Amino acid sequence: MTFLPSKLNFRTGNILLFFILLSVISGCIPQRETVYLQNQAEDRNYKNPYSDLTTITERYVLRPNDLLYIQVNTSNPKLSEFFNPNRSGGSSNQQSQSLYTYLVDDSMNIDFPFVGTINFEGCTLQQAREKMENVLIPFVSDAHVKMRLASDSFVILGEVGSPGRIQMGKEQITIYEAIALAGDVRTFGKRKEIKIVRPDGDGYKTFFVDITDDNIVGSDEYYVYPNDLIYVRPMRAKSFGIGETFSFGIISSVLALYLTIEAISR
To answer: How far, in Å, CA of 185 to CA of 207, rounded?
Structure first.
């Protein structure tokens, strides 16, 4: 009976030591999991999962429900005003932009004043601009069309600094630009398996990218497009309750508490 407290203390110490070691192991993240753009060629078993970029030109193809900001400029002020109503009015920039915004319907058409229906099936923005200028030739020979996406945003969720819907500012950006706009990946974000869900025709396609792999640069998967959904999953370490505020100071405090209790119980 006299040895029971010692046995209990020994068992308690082992249990505490086990949890401390588990916390240390779980909290340590290898450098290869966090460093971007690593050269994977040194790994003999590595196989490049990324497809080659087919072109270096604009890649985004217009889709249903895209909003297009369109302005028609000509050398004739009256014609310019005709195609751009309230151009010289006193409306705010936001109100003015809404007047020039056109929705791409499910048939890939827009309804443009006076001209009528224009179809943009399979067109990039540049191709859509050129097509619209050709459509306008019978009405005005020197038309210059200014066109951009008014719905140029993507959604990013998970282990990033600022999750949410983010404006791109242009038709396509790289995955690294998207992550930078979201405040970078958090400490326990899974950089090797970032999920991207992209509208594709009548449905969606899903793929994964590894931003620690430098082979992603120059591939089809390198770019983020409007309406993409990006999800950065947490590492397994976070499931143990270890967050970014985790430090070895916590372990030291727990160990000090245990030693104090051990000394008092003797």
So the answer is: 18
